[in-house]
Amino acid sequence: MAFRTVISCKIPMVVILGATGTGKTKLSLELAQRFGTEIISADSMQIYKGLDIVTAKATLQERQLVPHHLLDILEPHQNFTVVDFRNRALKIIDELTKENKVPIIVGGTNYYIESIIYKILVEDMNDTNALLWDQSKRKRDFADEEIETNKKQAIESEASNSTPESKDIKKDFDVNRDKIKEDVDNEAKLSNEEIHARLKAIDPKMAARLHPNNRRKVLRSIEVWLKSGRLHSDILEEQKLSEGQLRRPGSTVILWLKCEQKVHDERLDARVDSMLEEGLVQELLNFHEYHNKQRMKDGHPPDYTKGVYQTLGFKEFHEYLILPEEGKNSDEGRKLLQHSIENMKIATRRYARRQNKMVRGRFLEIPRREVPPIYELDTTDLSKWNEDVKNKAINIIESYLNESDCNVEPLKPQQHDEKVKIDGHSCNYCEVCQRLIIGDKEYSIHLASNRHKKVLKKKIQLAEKKLDENSQ
Fold this sequence. Notes:
Layout: E1 13-18, H1 24-35, E2 39-41, H2 60-65, E3 68-69, H3 82-98, E4 104-106, H4 110-117, H5 132-140, H6 144-158, H7 164-171, H8 173-185, H9 192-202, H10 204-209, H11 215-228, H12 232-239, E5 252-258, H13 261-278, H14 280-297, H15 314-321, H16 325-328, H17 331-364, E6 374-378, H18 385-402, E7 420-422, E8 425-430, E9 435-438, H19 440-447, H20 450-471
Parallel strand pairs: 1-4, 1-5, 2-3, 2-4, 5-6
Antiparallel strand pairs: 7-8, 8-9
Helix pairs in contact: 1-18, 3-4, 8-9, 8-11, 9-11, 13-17, 15-17
């Protein structure tokens, strides 16, 4: 029996999710060619120049077949945030949609994917070409009036329930801001503990959530305060009930590529072996020589927590990379190389498991979120790729474009079987619209809305049409 997906007449945004090594690149190329469209990479490592092998980028030949966006746009030392990604990706998605092209987003960085599916981020910036880190520094030079206004509003709205601690923070707002503006502009001179102490001085709740070694997130929380005059922790609290709203309700489709675990593990090991044949070790050596060696000569340890240096392979091969040339060619060096290879295989398998767990946890098991249709495609048997993956994906997308029946049923969110409570608010799932509604009052309003009635009417008409066809 065909399963009718609730849709809109909008061009669908197609998101291809899946753990590393499940075939996301292959499917994205096939779909982009089939529908005459372009691919947006949502991979936080592939956005950097270099390391093409270890980050498993689409090859130059593949990029010539289909236009790719957000690949190789940053130098390794540049800071890039999820907001930077969101701003650029949404602009490209809008441009493709205006051209009646289906945007295809592919990548393994789930928080990048979430940023374009949901309305969950604080900043909303117009300059999509500037990097957030640089833009925020420039903005601080002329944002004083805006900050003062935000600060005044925040103080007035929170006066009734503010704590002595928060009053002290507000009292010292101007002094702290000027001092911290100067500190953040020169943040390279400060240790993780010193930066964390700055955040604790202005936002103790946020500081309690973040480890001092998570320098990037600590700095981001300070940036939010400097730009808005509001505490990051307060803003996040306000977003709790609205974080699950879809940007494109009715026109977002997720294709989740899955593979049987044993087969996937074997495939990942073979993938590392293939990377080695393509020149993985030399690629890492060249990158280490150009970017890490001088840092170590200056007395700084290599930092595998930022940017492209987080890529699987750097940390696992570190001990081998720092060996002198004669050491690499020794018996001990060769043993260390084999140990590094095995470590990378283990880390890759673990990473793939985390990716699948995150997909379930962030999309299927959060009751406060609206969940777009998620279609699971089995990539275990590559000899059945066309039947199990490619053709099913094409059928799903065409059903949205043509407003026709789809023979593939989406996964059902695991928390929608019964009503649950989130922060004192009930969650209601509308089977007709496939939407999650927070609050009983809001659910009643939704059931009475024209949108709900329109979708219900269309489903009834389709059901009646089917009955007529079957009776003939």
